[in-house]
Amino acid sequence: MSLKVRISEDMKSAMRAKDSARLGAIRLLLAAIKQREVDERIELDDMQVIEAIEKMLKQRRDSISQYEAANRHDLADVEKFEVSVLQEYLPQALTEDEIKAILEQVVTETSASGIKDMGKVMAAVKPLVVGRADMGKISGLIKSRLSA
Q1: Are the C-beta atoms of 100 and 60 separated by less than 8 Å?
Q2: What is the pTM of this model?
Q3: Which of 44, 67, 88, 102 would bridge 75 by S-S if both were Cys, CB 3.0 to 4.6 A apart?
Q4: 29 and 53 in contact (C-beta within 8 Å)?
Q5: What sections of 41-148 are H helices per DSSP?
Q6: How far is the C-alpha of 69 from the C-alpha of 89, rounded, in Å?
């Protein structure tokens, strides 16, 4: 079953269960997917759906930090719930050791020797970790590895 079909089925389940909070989060996700399909005139595959989910997660995390800074914990809680719903559709996250092993492998394969090779390493790492690790964190790990 494709990820998009699974999301649609979960929306129907949330409707039947009258779970309005979950239903709202899933509808937002489906709207983002459909918007991207219309804008780009394509049918999204699972990897592209994961990219859309990651974009939404990044937006939610930014909103959470802004709401908490403004002392609006009620709004932050809504965003946190949406994050938890969105994360259900991502593949199993990589552990710190798995990420480091992938980075070492890619650095060796690309013969990266310094910080100037960071773009080359990022381009090779991204397809291996998409949806399973935070790219901001990956970027920091690559930077520290290449500057060492």
Answers
A1: no
A2: 0.80
A3: 67
A4: yes
A5: 46-69, 73-87, 96-110, 118-129, 135-147
A6: 28
CA distance linking residue 63 with residue 59, whole number of Å: 6
Distance CA 32, CA 147 (A): 38
Which residues are CB-contacts of 112 (< 8 A; sequence separation ≥ 6)?
106, 118, 120, 121, 146
Q: Judge contact between 73 and 63, C-beta under 8 A.
A: no
Q: How far apart are CA 146 and CA 68, in angstroms?
A: 35
**Contacts by 94-100, CB closer than 8 A, 24 or more apart:** 94/129, 94/132, 94/133, 99/129, 99/133, 99/137, 99/138, 99/141, 100/141
pLDDT in tens, 4-25: 999 999 999 999 999 999 999 9
